[in-house]
Amino acid sequence: MSEQNTLAFTKKYGPWAVIAGASHGVGAALADQVAAKGLNCVLVARREDALTDLKNQLVDRYGVEVLVVTLDLTLDDAADRLVAAVADREVGLLIYNAGGDPYITRFLDTPVEDWCKLLHLNTRTIMRCCHAFGGRMVARGAGGVLLVGSQAALGGVRKLAMYAATKSFAMTLGEGLWAEWKGQGVDVLNLLIGTVDTPTMRDAMVRQGIAGALTMQLAKAEDIAAIALRELPNGPTLIHPDDLAESPTGSHSGLARREHVQRISAESALFIGD
Ligand SMILES: NC(=O)c1ccc[n+]([C@@H]2O[C@H](COP(=O)([O-])OP(=O)(O)OC[C@H]3O[C@@H](n4cnc5c(N)ncnc54)[C@H](OP(=O)(O)O)[C@@H]3O)[C@@H](O)[C@H]2O)c1
């Protein structure tokens, strides 16, 4: 990215980014790339040691400010706790990356209370974070929201019924917010990914007894993070890799969902107004 593009990125999405789910994998790669562009970072996850290691790396490498927030995002009041920890820092970028399914079982084989945790992680906490941080971005007329999603959002999946359902919620919410905020300087992107090399995915493959679980070639977290940041203005929803445009500007990326959301929003305006 040229110096000019980095400056434009910082102006639009700085000075602070919140990365929910930053301790490893795609979230850690996103934090690294966001900090490389000069944004200060709020790193959120449950494992304080991993976040502190990442904080030290980002401070050393890029000289940015970093706040560590150790938090379980499945808690009822997780978003309130996060907003309180962020305090008056000016957040221009919200990245919600936490949200993998730690269970991967048939619906009846996991206690309903555990499904409720996944439900909170992928619906209520996202919604409250979008309301709090998105509200501040709309007020200042600049910002971005990146929801790291899954291709499972596109329909029900065996052994991933709750995961797919909650990812659909996030995608649909993101699309509605994109339609509402696109004229107000705030970008929203759902990045729906397939299988990526993260500790959670490798652990799941081992637990499920998949042959080659540790050696199979998977998409790299760093590559997914780079695509996510590059495509942020091309919301609302990009299915990776099918939906990536070949054009150098990428402005046609995610065209199918964009046209769908634009058409539905225009048609519904006839009945519910703008
Ligand atoms: N990996 C894949 O193949 C794949 C495929 C499709 C979509 N995705 C999506 O990509 C995103 C990242 O995937 P991932 O495999 O790295 O998933 P992940 O297990 O959700 O981990 C991502 C990050 O979220 C944090 N996290 C998880 N649960 C949390 C909780 N309850 N409270 C706070 N932080 C929490 C993890 O750190 P801590 O454990 O330290 O809390 C980690 O830093 C997810 O949204 C996932 O749905 C992944």
Automatic annotation (TrEMBL):
<dbReference type="InterPro" id="IPR051019">
    <property type="entry name" value="VLCFA-Steroid_DH"/>
</dbReference>
<dbReference type="GO" id="GO:0016491">
    <property type="term" value="F:oxidoreductase activity"/>
</dbReference>
<dbReference type="InterPro" id="IPR002347">
    <property type="entry name" value="SDR_fam"/>
</dbReference>
<keyword id="KW-0560">Oxidoreductase</keyword>
<dbReference type="Pfam" id="PF00106">
    <property type="entry name" value="adh_short"/>
</dbReference>
<protein>
    <submittedName>
        <fullName>SDR family NAD(P)-dependent oxidoreductase</fullName>
    </submittedName>
</protein>
<comment type="similarity">
    <text>Belongs to the short-chain dehydrogenases/reductases (SDR) family.</text>
</comment>
<dbReference type="InterPro" id="IPR036291">
    <property type="entry name" value="NAD(P)-bd_dom_sf"/>
</dbReference>
